[in-house]
């Protein structure tokens, strides 16, 4: 299958006012195949948006290059840009214009005009189920409706590749569901390649053919979900919420040695919510274990014997969250 | 291995013809800018309502409602077209031919010519060196403030209109003539230029290059100079040829005061010529008939006559002598007609109209400065809301995005000034009570000034926004710069010395508008300064500004 996007050593360094520099993206290598949904998964600040901005030509790379359909984004940017659509995280629309006027304007910037433009605008308004609101100003729309118009604006030129930068941020579950379904539809019915960034593991799992996990400006893992979860083995993840108490080191060692199948334990102590608050977040104990459900009774018994106040227990099978946790020692939402 | 080398085959992007497409994108961006600007009610208030209300209030405060006080007029630009063919006195006073059937008379006709020559009004005097007598030359010379020489000028001496008892002219005309006499020279009042062709002169007036054209027709001198003839009873009489010798004053509707002044001046001069002709004819008629009668009856022996006393009397005749003759002038003998475009009522420009022009123009430009700066600054808004990023990701070079933004701003400022001038015209018309176009008749020049101002204002906007590092700096320094330019340029009702004011584009714009309103078209320097300033600021600002869209 032909590559739609390829990056080599893509790097972006920003200068700070004090003269120092910060490397937002540290030499990213990517290969995205035609017709697949590729997700960049990572916490906020991981470098996902900067990476997608460089690939889309919005930000000039400090080093390296990206090709879109074989065209370099740095030296053949106009050809490359004609192959892509862009759905930014923000609602990149003019609030004082109607939905139709917004789409018509951006359509003209993609070289559309006349009847072809009118037809395309109407198709997209139908596609996002907003044809009946086409003459209303954007600033009268709900957040979900704005997101749908935002998505439609990225599809105006019927691009073979579309970038979506966290397109479900800040919307209600119903609108989010509609957008996720639309993304799958674009791939399945139109053969579109989708580069999707998110910090939500569930979205990446539901949508992606392949996932690239980013942290601190680097791709730390890349592959299908099966390939990635294999990296953390067959371990289940047992998550204990244990109230506002510290877990002693010797207790952790005891659990690990006394319970068969336990491979690793992460302990997150309780944290005070704020300086002027007496409340704190509960402590968490995350235990990786093969055949987790089998090991669970023994673990509970050990903790109970140590007077640990267990508030809840969850057993999770291997997933992308586990991969991220395994690779970084932190949860995605941290 | 480089990425491009790994993909010798590429996915064909949609193709378009590049240049027209990019131009369409610039126009699309500019159209969006104009549309969103004119949809914003707050902006509309700032752009139009505020300057309009301010100008009207200041105009009413300093100009009043109605009123007709004359302004200080000077250097009214006038085209003078002299088509006068003159008249040959030999033909007019062709005594031998006219006396050809008078063989019965016992005198030699040549003696009569000699008699007129001795009186200083014979063919030899009236036709110097055989050249035709041309009153048009004299009229043109007076209007052009050139040295006046020749018979006609000599003849006009002592024929002061105001000394004639009959009320020959309307009051305003008399006033005009009187003011002319008081002024002594027209060079302060008129800025007259000789033009060869009548149509060319009328066209120049239509364009606003001149406030009026004085067109002296081919038959002007023939109309003034009387013809001599004898009736069947051999009585001698004078008659004025029935041909069109009326001087035409072709005027600009937008300059009613200038037209009225010019009309008075020309009427005063021409009527003096007319009176000369009438006086001459009447004198000759009386004298010749009397002489002929005396000769015919034998009372006078031509050989023994001493004409020196009569000649002296004729040469020294004055207004007292001519007083009864002045009343011979009928309305049809008034050689002035005024033609002008359809506006029927010639009126004096009210004070409000004269006040609102500089005030309204300065307010229009002052508020346009805000549009210029904050219109360009809106690119920061586009970046904040990510519409700029969406545009940059589209296959449109950044320079074209910038061009679209600048074009939109330029057109917006142009329309703002244009609409404000139109609205001020409406306000002036309402206050005055009848349709009055207050910006002069030279629409092309008016549009050129607005365009130059729009370029200059937009250029300043680009420069200021390009210079500032943040939107906050633009918010701080933009108004400061605008107000400084307004103070220096005289937009706040007080004027600084010209040397200082010239640093403000408001000065150049307001000066150009005021000149056009006064039918003066010498605005080349204003246009050059505004266009040059605009282009320099535009280029400098664009260079500075380009980094603002490097994300």
Q: What does the secondary structure layout of this molecule look like, with pairings?
A:
The complex is a heterodimer of chains A (334) and B (551).
Chain A: E1 3-15, E2 21-33, E3 37-41, H1 48-55, E4 63-68, E5 71-72, H2 77-82, E6 84-87, H3 99-109, H4 114-127, H5 143-153, E7 161-165, H6 173-190, E8 193-198, H7 201-207, E9 210-215, E10 218-223, H8 225-231, E11 236-241, H9 249-258, E12 262-268, E13 271-272, E14 280-281, E15 284-289, H10 292-305, E16 312-316, H11 320-328
Chain B: H1 3-6, H2 18-39, H3 41-63, E1 76-82, H4 89-92, H5 95-98, H6 109-118, H7 123-126, H8 135-143, H9 151-156, H10 171-183, E2 190-194, H11 198-207, E3 212-216, H12 220-224, E4 227-230, E5 236-239, E6 247-251, H13 256-296, H14 308-315, H15 319-326, E7 336-339, H16 351-384, H17 387-393, H18 398-432, H19 443-467, H20 471-489, H21 498-501, H22 505-517, H23 524-546
Parallel strand pairs in B: 1-2, 1-3, 6-7
Antiparallel strand pairs in B: 3-6, 4-5
Helix pairs in contact in B: 2-18, 3-16, 3-18, 10-13, 16-18, 16-19, 16-20, 16-22, 18-19, 19-22, 19-23, 20-22, 22-23
Descriptive account of the structure:
The complex is a heterodimer of chains A (334) and B (551). Chain A has 334 residues and is α/β, with parallel strands linked by helices. Chain A has two domains: 3-230, 3-Layer(aba) Sandwich (Rossmann fold), CATH 3.40.50; 234-317, ACT domain (Alpha-Beta Plaits, 2-Layer Sandwich), CATH 3.30.70. Chain A contains eleven helices and 16 strands. Chain A has helices at 48-55, 77-82, 99-109, 114-127, 143-153, 173-190, 201-207, 225-231, 249-258, 292-305, 320-328; strands at 3-15, 21-33, 37-41, 63-68, 71-72, 84-87, 161-165, 193-198, 210-215, 218-223, 236-241, 262-268, 271-272, 280-281, 284-289, 312-316. In chain A, the strands form four sheets. In chain A, strands 6-7-8-3-9-10 form a six-stranded mixed β-sheet, with helices on both faces. In chain A, strand 1 and strand 2 (21-33) form a beta hairpin. In chain A, helix 3 packs across helix 4 (114-127), helix 5 runs parallel beside helix 6 (173-190) and helix 9 crosses helix 10 (292-305). Chain A is elongated. The mean pLDDT of chain A is 88. The longest helix of chain B is centred in the middle third of the chain and has 41 residues, at 256-296. Chain B starts with a helix and ends in a 5-residue tail after the last helix. Chain B is elongated and about 120 Å long. In chain B, helix 19 runs antiparallel to helix 22 (505-517). Chain B is 60% helix and 6% strand. Chain B folds into two domains: 22-70 and 349-549, no CATH class; 76-339, no CATH class. With 551 residues, chain B is of the alpha/beta class. The model of chain B is unreliable at 1-8, 66-72, 96-107, 126-131, 148-184 and 317-348 (pLDDT under 50). In chain B, a hairpin with a 5-residue loop joins strand 4 and strand 5 (236-239). Chain B has 23 helices and seven strands. Chains A and B meet through strand 1, strand 4, strand 5, helix 2 and helix 3 of A and helix 1, helix 2 and helix 17 of B.
């Amino acid at each position: 299958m032909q590559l739609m996007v390829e990056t080599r050593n893509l790097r972006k360094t920003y200068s700070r006012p004090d003269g120092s520099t910060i490397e937002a993206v540290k030499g990213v290598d990517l290969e995205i195949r035609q017709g697949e949904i590729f997700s960049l998964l990572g916490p906020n600040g991981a470098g996902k948006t900067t990476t997608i901005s460089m690939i889309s030509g919005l930000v000039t790379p400090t080093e390296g290059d990206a090709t879109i359909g074989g065209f370099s984004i740095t030296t053949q940017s106009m050809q490359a840009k004609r192959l892509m659509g862009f759905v930014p995280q923000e609602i990149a629309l003019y609030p004082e214009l109607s939905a139709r006027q917004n789409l018509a304007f951006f359509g003209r910037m993609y070289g559309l005009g006349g009847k072809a433009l009118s037809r395309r605008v109407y198709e997209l308004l139908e596609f996002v189920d907003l044809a009946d609101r086409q003459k209303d100003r954007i600033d009268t729309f709900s957040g979900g409706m704005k997101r749908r118009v935002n998505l439609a604006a990225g599809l105006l030129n019927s691009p073979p590749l579309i970038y979506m930068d966290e397109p479900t941020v800040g919307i209600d579950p119903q609108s989010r569901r509609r957008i996720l379904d639309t993304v799958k539809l674009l791939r399945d019915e139109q053969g579109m390649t989708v580069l999707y960034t998110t910090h939500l593991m569930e979205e990446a799992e539901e949508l992606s053919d392949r996932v690239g996990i980013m942290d601190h400006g680097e791709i730390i893992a890349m592959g299908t979900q099966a390939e990635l979860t294999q990296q953390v083995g067959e371990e289940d993840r047992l998550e204990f919420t244990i109230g506002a108490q510290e877990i002693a080191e010797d207790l952790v060692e005891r659990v690990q040695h006394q319970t068969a199948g336990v491979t690793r334990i992460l302990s997150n102590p309780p944290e005070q919510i704020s300086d002027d608050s007496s409340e704190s977040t509960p402590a968490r104990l995350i235990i990786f274990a093969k055949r987790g459900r089998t090991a669970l009774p023994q673990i509970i018994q050990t903790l109970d014997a140590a007077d640990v106040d267990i508030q809840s227990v969850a057993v999770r099978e291997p997933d992308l969250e586990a991969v991220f946790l395994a690779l970084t020692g932190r949860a995605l939402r941290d | 291995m480089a990425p491009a080398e790994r993909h010798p085959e590429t996915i064909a992007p949609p193709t378009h013809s590049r240049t027209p497409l990019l131009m369409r994108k610039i126009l699309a961006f500019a159209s969006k800018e104009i549309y969103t600007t004119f949809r914003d009610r707050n902006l509309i208030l700032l752009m139009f309502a505020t300057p309009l209300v301010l100008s009207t209030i200041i105009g009413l405060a300093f100009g009043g409602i109605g009123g007709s006080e004359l302004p200080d007029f000077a250097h009214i630009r006038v085209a003078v077209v002299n088509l006068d063919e003159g008249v040959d006195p030999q033909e007019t006073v062709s005594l031998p031919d006219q006396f050809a059937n008078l063989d019965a008379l016992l005198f030699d006709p040549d003696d009569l010519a000699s008699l007129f020559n001795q009186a200083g009004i014979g063919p030899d005097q009236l036709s110097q060196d055989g050249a035709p007598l041309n009153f048009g030359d004299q009229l043109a010379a007076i209007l052009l403030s050139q040295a006046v020489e020749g018979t006609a000028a000599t003849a006009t001496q002592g024929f002061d209109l105001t000394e004639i008892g009959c009320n020959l002219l309307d009051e305003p005309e008399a006033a005009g003539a009187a003011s002319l006499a008081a002024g002594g020279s027209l060079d302060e009042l008129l800025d007259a230029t000789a033009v060869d062709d009548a149509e060319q002169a009328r066209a120049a007036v239509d364009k606003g290059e001149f406030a009026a054209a004085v067109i002296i027709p081919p038959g002007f001198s023939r109309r003034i100079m009387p013809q001599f003839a004898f009736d069947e009873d051999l009585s001698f009489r004078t008659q004025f040829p029935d041909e069109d010798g009326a001087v035409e004053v072709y005027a600009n509707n937008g300059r009613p005061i200038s037209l009225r002044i010019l009309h008075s001046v020309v009427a005063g001069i021409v009527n003096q010529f007319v009176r000369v002709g009438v006086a001459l004819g009447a004198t000759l008629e009386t004298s010749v008939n009397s002489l002929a009668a005396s000769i015919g009856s034998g009372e006078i022996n031509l050989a023994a006559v001493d004409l020196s006393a009569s000649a002296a009397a004729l040469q020294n005749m004055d207004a007292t002598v001519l007083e009864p003759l002045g009343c011979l002038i009928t309305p049809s003998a008034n050689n002035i007609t005024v033609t002008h475009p359809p506006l029927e009522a010639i009126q004096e420009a009210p004070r409000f109209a004269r006040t609102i022009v500089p005030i309204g123009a300065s307010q229009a430009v002052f508020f346009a400065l805000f549009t210029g700066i904050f219109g360009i600054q809106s690119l920061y808004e586009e970046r904040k809301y990510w519409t700029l990023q969406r545009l940059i990701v589209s296959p449109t070079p950044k320079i074209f995005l910038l061009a679209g933004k600048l074009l939109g701003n330029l057109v917006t400022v142009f329309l703002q000034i244009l609409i404000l001038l139109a609205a001020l015209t409406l306000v002036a018309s309402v206050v005055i009570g009848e349709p009055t176009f207050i910006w002069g008749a030279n629409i092309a020049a008016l549009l050129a000034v607005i365009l130059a101002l729009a370029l200059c204002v937009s250029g300043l906007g680009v420069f200021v926004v390009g210079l500032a590092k943040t939107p906050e700096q633009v918010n701080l320094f933009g108004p400061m710069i605008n107000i400084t330019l307004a103070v220096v340029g005289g937009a706040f009702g007080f004027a600084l010395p010209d040397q200082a004011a010239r640093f403000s584009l408001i000065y150049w714009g307001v000066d150009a508008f005021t000149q056009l309103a006064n039918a003066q078209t010498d605005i080349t320097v204003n246009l050059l300064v505004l266009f040059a300033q605009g282009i320099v600021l535009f280029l400098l600002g664009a260079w500075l500004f380009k980094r603002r869209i490097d994300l």
